Each structure stands twice: as structure tokens, then as C-alpha cells.
Amino acid sequence: MPDIYCEGCGVKIQTEDETALGYAPPGALRNEPVVCRRCFRLKNYNEVQSVPITGDDFLKMLSRIAEVDALVVYLVDIFDFSGSWVPGLQRFVGENPVLLVGNKKDLLPKSTNANKLKSWIWRSAKELGLKPVDVLLMSAEKNHGIDEVKRSMEFYRDGRDVYIVGSTNVGKSTFINHLIQETVGGSGVITTSRFPGTTLDFIGVPLDDGCTLYDTPGVVNLRQMVHFVDVEDYRQVMPNREIKPKVFQLNENQTLFLAGMARVDYLGPGRRSLIVYASNALVIHRTKLENADDLFKRQYGHLLAPPGRRDQLPVLKRFDYRTGELNTDIVFSGLGWVTVKGRGARLSAFVPEGIGVTVRSSIIKG
């Protein structure tokens, strides 16, 4: 039969092997559009099936962009900037201009200073070796800021193809669906979900001037907390609405647990505020430092959940900090961050082995 590609994820359809990528029952080929079983179950039942494609395969796909003349629209997750960053992106896109777009601004508190946030993204990108032509903010989910992104895309692409790139779950497909419906006027909708790794190959959308807009597969970053939890815990870990900050007054030698996935020990000096920015559904527990190790052993998977199942205790890696900024964020990749008020605080942060932890000047005013 002629080659048919899944309307949802872009993978080539096959009808022989139910366990292989791109499988669809023969009867599904009569449908319009044709989608693979994985996309059908994801869209209709929110059921995630494993994908036999590695992060290296994704990066090899991205390297094809360096061979063409195009605009690259690079989406990062504002909520998880470091965890959604694609290492070495400049190498994969070659000399093509990069428009850097921070998505999910709707998750941040309304007190967030947009100009300060954009400046921080500029600086962070430069430190990571990328010099974008512009930095913009949007919410693909809420359809906020997309018009400005579209205008910038038209200006910077200058009659060329466009590639939308980014790590898993940054909102590429949701963004492109808006472009299809509002700009291109097509009826096709790319498969979207709140789970990582939906798009499996380049999906081309024709533009009016003969060029093409491409959705690309998401690069899997295993340093994100999402890869540490099960699918059923993911909804609780990832916020889907504006974060409500949780303020804690900590004395010396007290500990904050972010469910069973991260821990902050405040060592001093004095009493000060720590503010947690994470999913509103996430349980934050405070205890004395002297009780923290025992509490973790007894309550991991119970009071300290997610993770919601009681497996072997994870190996936690310790990071020690002394704050130099007036307000400092300790960022747990894919989980959120804790703002430490005031200079000179001594802290230790703990996360499962392999999960990323970074420190930055606070991006929230106040």
C-alpha cells in the first residue's frame, strides 16, 4: 500500500506488528484522518504507550535542520527552563536564526515581572551558548501572546520554512494547532497531551507562500523530574493552572519536603521565609532537620507522595548552597523551585540521583 503517515504524531503507519511503532488496525485505514493506535488511545483515553525511540534518535532528527535555510522557533518551558533546555541546540540548527519563546507563562503568579523574566531568559540563553534573534513569552494552552509570536515568525522567517523545536512537553503541538486553525485554516490537529514524547517525526504544515511549518519530535531530557514518576503521578507533579505560592517561616535546622521528590534543609542563620512555587496539588511537609531522615524512610510513598508507590528508597544527591542574592531560587528540574529570602542563607538541597538542580536570582518580585 502507499505510504501513510499518522495525522497525530507523524510516524509511518504499518498494520503488521501491533507492538511496533506506527501500528494501526487495517480497518483504521478507511478513516479520515488516519492515526496510529498510540495516538488514538492517547487522544480518546489519555492512555500513554511507551515509545521505542531514544533521545539520541530525536537529536539525529533535529540535526537535519542544519542542512536547510529556515527559521527555528525554539520553545522552552518557563516553569522548567533548565529542564526543558536542549543541550547543544546551536549545533543542531547550524547558522539558522533562532526565535526563543518561553511557553506556559500562565502557570506563573500574576506578580511575575514579564520584562525581568525575558531578561533572565536572554542571559541564561547566552550563558548556554545560544544567541536568539528575539525572546518572547506566551501561553499556548491559554492562547495568550500567540499573535505576537506569529508576527515575529513572519518577520524573521523572511519567506523561509519554519521549524518548531524543543524538549518534550513544552507545548509545541498545542502551539502549532493554533497556527493551523488560525493562520493556515486547516482542519488537521496534531496529537497533544500533558505527557512527554507525543510527536515522533517531523510533521509538515504547508504555508500559503509555498513554504512549510514543521513540528519536530520533542527531545527527551532525563534530568527532568517527570521521568522519575509514574504516569498516574504526573498530573499531580505538573501544574495545569496558575501556581499559588506557599510561604513557610523556617527556623534554623528545619526541613521542607516537596512530596517524596525533593528536600530542602535550612541550616540558618536565623529565621527566614522560604516560598515554594510548585503544583498546587503537591504536598509540602515541614519537619525538624533531626527528624528528616527517619521521616523520609517511614513516609516515602505515603505522607511523602508522589511517588505514589512504595519502591526502594531512591538515592538522594546533596547540593550545598549559601545565598548571595537578596532573593534566590533553588530550582528542581520539572518540579518547581523554592525562593529563599535574604542573603547569607545556608541550605542543602536533595533530589534523586540524576535530577537537575540549579540556582538563580529570583524571577518573582517581592
TrEMBL record:
Record SUPFAM superfamilies: P-loop containing nucleoside triphosphate hydrolases
InterPro entries found in the cross-reference section: G_CP_dom, GTP-bd, GTP-bd_ribosome_bgen_YqeH, Mito_lipid_metab_GTPase, NOA1/YqeH-like_C, P-loop_NTPase
Top-level taxon of the source organism: Bacteria
Listed Gene3D superfamilies: P-loop containing nucleotide triphosphate hydrolases
MF (Gene Ontology): GTP binding
Pfam (any one): MMR_HSR1
Location of the CP-type G domain: 59-222
Transmembrane segments: none
PROSITE patterns referenced in this protein's UniProt entry, alphabetically: G_CP
Name of the featured protein: CP-type G domain-containing protein
Organism of provenance: Sporolactobacillus putidus
Gene: yqeH
